[in-house]
Design goal:
By secondary structure, the chain is mainly α. It has 23 helices and 5 strands.
């Protein structure tokens, strides 16, 4: 068995350890291994899920938490975060992840979540000792560089930016790979509102360590603040590839894809979404909007088959969101593609067929069978019941002008302009065309 350093022995003897794993034999084996290398048996606690772990962690004032990466939907990262928050007044808990696959994305994700170390299973006793020796040595006897980084962190927290900058300047000059020093230098510049200078430091940090998530995320946000949408989007795509589970960042990437008109990339974004463990409702709305805009873009280009691919992604994966089925149908109706629109009616579930979105969709597809007066009456009834559809409003306004209901037409036209400010010119042209005809 590998030699156990006195530093590690002392570290283990003075801390309570919590092992979280759904596999009973796995956590017992790890507990046995820890006792063999110096951890008192009474200081080791075992549990199977995050809820139990939080309870034990706080009650026993756990100093080291070792969790499997397979402990439920929220996973170990949320557990580490919550436990650290609850224990912060007492001490800083050491968090160790046990994983089956040491992929680049996992290493990067662990770094993003502040994991102190990763143990790759299956592990031997010697590998376990090596891992813990290295971890504890860095914690107890950090290098001059890491000590400087820690001191800079505290100074930045206290807004002593000048002192922190001086320390970081020296670290950058002396250290071979000063990615953290560049990151914190960029953070200071960002807090001082010097975004171009912040970007330079974040870029340097990213060059030194292309998987340093803090630098990548900071650079992504700095590009956004600077209005560099193409650079921000390019960085966002890389982040999405390796760290898709950040909800706010995922939504930002979707927004930037729309701004930069990267419509083809929505296939990649859609595939990234499917891999998410937690499919947040806000991401669903942003993604459906992006897929819809992409589909509409290809309709305008006359590429119906490409448009259909994007509309089908919405219909097949998000049919529960009937609002998006409705906007697909009304868009196809607007383009005169009634047969294609009919196909999407079939994606409404039976329980949604009594909803206003289905009724409006069905009406828009079949509206040509009604005479003008009946069409306006039904359209107005839908709108009075809360339907929001620009195509429906437009048909109602034109119908009312045609049947002499000018006052009602004007009322609905002004209401439509409030809802769809981007269509104000189109609505004014409708009014003008009927004013000219009347003249």
């Amino acid at each position: 068995m590998r030699e156990i350093s006195s530093v590690l022995k002392n570290f283990l003897e003075n801390r309570r350890i919590l092992i979280v794993d759904v596999d009973h034999s796995s956590k017992n084996r790890l507990a046995s291994s820890l006792t063999k290398i110096g951890c008192p048996k009474d200081n080791i606690f075992l549990c199977s899920d995050a809820s139990q772990a939080l309870d034990i962690g706080v009650k026993k004032s756990i100093g080291i938490i070792i969790s499997s990466d397979e402990i439920g939907l929220s996973g170990p990262y949320e557990l580490f975060k919550e436990l650290r928050q609850k224990l912060s007044k007492m001490h800083q808990a050491t968090c160790i992840l046990i994983a089956s696959n040491l992929s680049q994305s996992l290493v990067a994700k662990a770094a993003e979540e502040g994991v102190d170390s990763i143990i790759l299973r299956p592990y031997t006793m010697n590998l376990l000792i090596d891992n813990l020796n290295d971890l504890v040595e860095k914690k107890v006897n950090p290098s001059t560089y890491l000590s400087g980084i820690k001191e800079s962190e505290k100074l930045i927290e206290n807004e002593e930016f000048s002192k922190a900058s001086s320390i970081l300047f020296d670290l950058i000059a002396k250290e071979k790979n000063p990615s953290l020093a560049h990151y914190y230098s960029g953070l200071i510049k960002e807090k001082l509102g010097e975004i171009p200078e912040a970007i330079k430091h974040f870029e340097e940090a990213s060059k030194k360590n292309k998987f340093h998530i803090k630098s990548l995320d900071a650079l992504f946000n700095a590009y956004k603040k600077d209005g560099s949408h193409l650079k921000a989007y390019s960085m966002g795509k890389d982040l999405l590839l390796y760290f898709p589970d950040n909800v706010m960042r995922f939504n930002d990437v979707i927004r930037l894809a729309i701004i930069t008109k990267a419509y083809d990339d929505f296939r990649f974004i859609y595939d990234s979404f499917k891999k998410l463990k937690n499919k947040d409702s806000s991401i669903v709305k942003f993604l459906c909007s992006g897929l819809f805009i992409s589909g509409k873009f290809y309709l305008y280009k006359g590429n119906d088959s490409e448009a259909k691919k994007f509309f089908d992604m919405i219909a097949e994966s998000f049919s529960a969101h009937s609002k998006f089925l409705k906007v697909i149908i009304e868009t196809l109706v607007e383009f005169g593609k009634y047969n294609e629109a009919i196909n999407y009616l079939g994606f409404f579930s039976d329980d949604k067929k009594q909803d206003l979105n289905y009724q409006v969709s069905e009406f828009l597809i079949t509206h040509e069978i009604f005479d003008t007066e009946e069409l306006t009456d039904r359209a107005e009834e839908f709108i009075n019941n809360g339907a929001e559809s620009f195509v429906l409003y437009r048909k109602l306004i034109k119908g009312l002008y045609l049947t002499g209901g000018k006052i009602r037409a004007e009322k609905h036209l002004e209401k439509a302009k409030e809802i769809w400010k981007e269509h104000a010119q189109t609505l004014d042209k409708i009014r003008e065309s009927f004013s000219e005809n009347a003249a």
